[in-house]
Write a structure and sequence with these properties.
single chain; 301 residues; alpha/beta; TIM Barrel; 8-stranded parallel barrel; disordered C terminus; FAD-linked_oxidoreductase-like; oxidoreductase; FAD; proline metabolism
Length: 301
């Protein structure tokens, strides 16, 4: 049986990454990646908007190790924000701090983030800091805390499979947080391994954040969780404008439209760019049955 661990191993395997990249994103990834350029991403977002869906775009890439790479990534984020503004689409920006130099120099990363947030603020737009693996959790929260002393248009994500999720949620009261299960292969010392325990902790985290009066972006494709969150919000008197649902581009499109038609904000996470491999492998790790994407991609070549 193809396992989650197998795909997470492939996500970090440089040899397989090099080979897959040569095959191109048509290797299944075309189903979940909105092209390679900013222009292609904006066209995808425009089509989503026409269906009543909001979006957030992410230029794929992470773990850069030079100042020049980090500055290039920051410049790309700025150009993406410019494109969002000029095209008039309903869209936020998502990014990773490692892409902006967190592992190179914290000061470099902070400078890049301030430039990006200044640009986003001038457009009245919002920037989401994606959460990465556990080793980057504390550094990410530290950067966020410092940024929020100046900026209100920035948030992050918290992963429900971590034991500390509810503790972090309480510390982020008043922050716009994407609430996710988590997609990295974390050890039992820090994360639940049993699916039922993850499910329970994830739901508790969502409910706690909403009860705190904070804005929550519930990111899941699980219709059971979505139904329970709706029921909980109605019971607790939590208004629809205090939460949104989020799903990944290419997944459960019909359900996305149904949620939007019910009056909830439905935001689609739209990744684009050349560095698609790690993202694609983590999506397969979450749902190994999605290997059919790769098969379809090969057959359509």
């Amino acid at each position: 049986m193809i396992t989650r661990t197998f795909f997470l191993f492939l996500a970090k395997n440089q040899f397989v990454k090099d080979k897959a990249t040569k095959w191109g994103p048509k290797f299944g990834a075309k189903s979940v990646i909105a092209g390679e350029t900013i222009e292609e991403a904006m066209e995808t977002v425009r089509k989503l908007n026409e269906k009543g869906l909001s979006a957030t775009v992410d230029h794929l890439g992470e773990f850069v190790y030079t100042k020049e790479e980090a500055e290039d990534a920051a410049d790309y984020c700025l150009r993406t924000l410019d494109a969002i503004e000029s095209s008039g689409v309903d869209c936020n920006l998502s990014l990773k701090l490692t892409q902006l130099g967190l592992d190179v120099d914290r000061g470099l990363c902070m400078n890049n983030m301030r430039m990006i947030l200044d640009r986003a603020q001038s457009y009245n737009n919002f920037v989401r800091i994606d959460m990465e693996d556990y080793s980057h959790l504390e550094p990410t929260l530290s950067v966020l805390q410092e940024l929020r002393e100046t900026y209100t248009n920035v948030g992050t994500a918290i992963q429900g499979y971590l034991y500390r999720a509810e503790q972090d949620i309480d510390a982020l009261k008043g922050t716009n947080v994407r609430l996710i299960k988590g997609a990295y292969n974390e050890p039992p010392e820090v994360a639940y391994q049993d699916a039922d325990e993850v499910y329970k902790n994830y739901l508790n985290m969502i409910k706690r954040h909403l009860q705190n009066g904070s804005y929550g972006a519930v990111a899941t494709h699980d219709h059971n969780i979505i139904a329970e969150v709706k029921e909980f919000a109605e019971k607790e008197g939590i208004p629809k404008d205090q939460l949104e649902f989020q799903m990944l581009y290419g997944f459960r499109s019909e359900l996305q439209e149904e949620i939007a038609q019910e009056g909830y904000k439905m935001r689609v996470y739209v990744p684009f760019g050349n560095d698609w491999y790690g993202y694609f492998m983590r999506r397969l790790a979450e749902r190994p049955q999605n290997i059919t994407f790769a098969v379809r991609g090969l057959l359509s070549k």
